[in-house]
Amino acid sequence: MGTAIKDTRVIITGGANGLGFMYSRHMLLKGAKAVAILDIDVATGTNAVKKLNDEFGQNRAVFISTDVSKDDQLKASFNKAVEHLGGLDIMINNAGILDDAKWSLMIDINIKALIQGTYMAIETMGKHKGGKGGTIINIGSVAAFLLTKYVPVYCATKSAVVSFTRSVALSFDDVGVNIKAMCPGPTNTNLMTSDAYRFPEYIDQEDGVKFMNAWPLQKPEIMAKEVMRFIEEAPNGAIWVNEIDSPTTCLDIPEYTSWKTPV
Ligand SMILES: NC(=O)c1ccc[n+]([C@@H]2O[C@H](COP(=O)([O-])OP(=O)(O)OC[C@H]3O[C@@H](n4cnc5c(N)ncnc54)[C@H](O)[C@@H]3O)[C@@H](O)[C@H]2O)c1
């Protein structure tokens, strides 16, 4: 029901560091033909690609400097990547920040760029345009389902990822592209471990840092292996959650009518 990774051409946003770098490495471990990393961090991205090419062979990874929050940059980099790869089989919309003090920018990165990435990938791979289909992985978060006062906009962007993915996946019969969302639980990357103050102004910032530091963090390697399984096994429209100390689960989200309470 999923997609075999071997010999695929992959674009990943936010792949210079953290989970995105791990996904890139595990895609190549699984035999992906080549990975294009679109990321804003030029120094880390250049180094990441060097590491991957040293491990897997020249030209298996390419870095394209991109601020995904800028529509024009994302479009130009996406086109450059497709040209470099000679096509596209898998798009991973992974770039994200967790910073409710910069909520407008966070919306642009976490959801606007993810929608743009999804639409460009459908346009490129879609059977309605003569393509041969493909796979799009959107990165959500368990935060999509959390109730917390500390990062309300982060939670909202991730709920939007889940909602958008479920709805757009309904067009599978029209475009032949599998679209699904993986929702990681707290994982040991800069996104969780930075002590930066990044909560709404009215929140006690020290309390916010304590809230972030209280989460047990899973290892990025474990998350990366589960994302590979997600690509290979999960059907179109699937929403999976992976958290520390519990097996990966698929979410079967009920019709809203079953939550209704007369008032
Ligand atoms: N770490 C976690 O606990 C966790 C949990 C759930 C979901 N996620 C999601 O996983 C994804 C990756 O997060 P991570 O934990 O690896 O974070 P990270 O901070 O380690 O890595 C994020 C990457 O995105 C890049 N990036 C940031 N802004 C960008 C921009 N404007 N344009 C292009 N690239 C940009 C960064 O340079 C970095 O390489 C995010 O979408 C995040 O919301 C993370």
From TrEMBL:
Under Gene Ontology molecular function, one entry of this record is: 15-hydroxyicosatetraenoate dehydrogenase activity
Question: Which superkingdom is the protein from?
Answer: Eukaryota
Question: Looking at the Swiss-Prot or TrEMBL record, what is one Pfam family this protein matches?
Answer: adh_short
Q: What does the UniProt keyword field contain?
A: Oxidoreductase
Q: Name one GO cellular component term.
A: cytoplasm
- Using the record for this protein, list the coiled-coil segments as residue ranges, or answer none: none
Gene3D superfamilies per record: NAD(P)-binding Rossmann-like Domain
> Which top EC class applies here?
oxidoreductase
InterPro entries registered for this protein in UniProt: NAD(P)-bd_dom_sf (IPR036291), Sc_DH/Rdtase_CS (IPR020904), SDR_fam (IPR002347)
Provide the E.C. number(s) assigned to this enzyme: 1.1.1.141, 1.1.1.232
Reactions listed under catalytic activity = prostaglandin E2 + NAD(+) = 15-oxoprostaglandin E2 + NADH + H(+); lipoxin A4 + NAD(+) = 15-oxo-(5S,6R)-dihydroxy-(7E,9E,11Z,13E)-eicosatetraenoate + NADH + H(+); 14-hydroxy-(4Z,7Z,10Z,12E,16Z,19Z)-docosahexaenoate + NAD(+) = 14-oxo-(4Z,7Z,10Z,12E,16Z,19Z)-docosahexaenoate + NADH + H(+); prostaglandin A1 + NAD(+) = 15-oxo-prostaglandin A1 + NADH + H(+)
Q: Does the keyword Oxidoreductase apply?
A: yes
Which PANTHER family is this protein grouped with? 15-HYDROXYPROSTAGLANDIN DEHYDROGENASE [NAD(+)] (PTHR44229)
Q: Which family does it belong to?
A: Belongs to the short-chain dehydrogenases/reductases (SDR) family.
Q: What is the role of the protein in this entry?
A: Catalyzes the NAD-dependent dehydrogenation (oxidation) of a broad array of hydroxylated polyunsaturated fatty acids (mainly eicosanoids and docosanoids, including prostaglandins, lipoxins and resolvins), yielding their corresponding keto (oxo) metabolites. Decreases the levels of the pro-proliferative prostaglandins such as prostaglandin E2 (whose activity is increased in cancer because of an increase in the expression of cyclooxygenase 2) and generates oxo-fatty acid products that can profoundly influence cell function by abrogating pro-inflammatory cytokine expression.
What is the designated name of this protein? 15-hydroxyprostaglandin dehydrogenase [NAD(+)]
Species this chain originates from:
Microctonus hyperodae
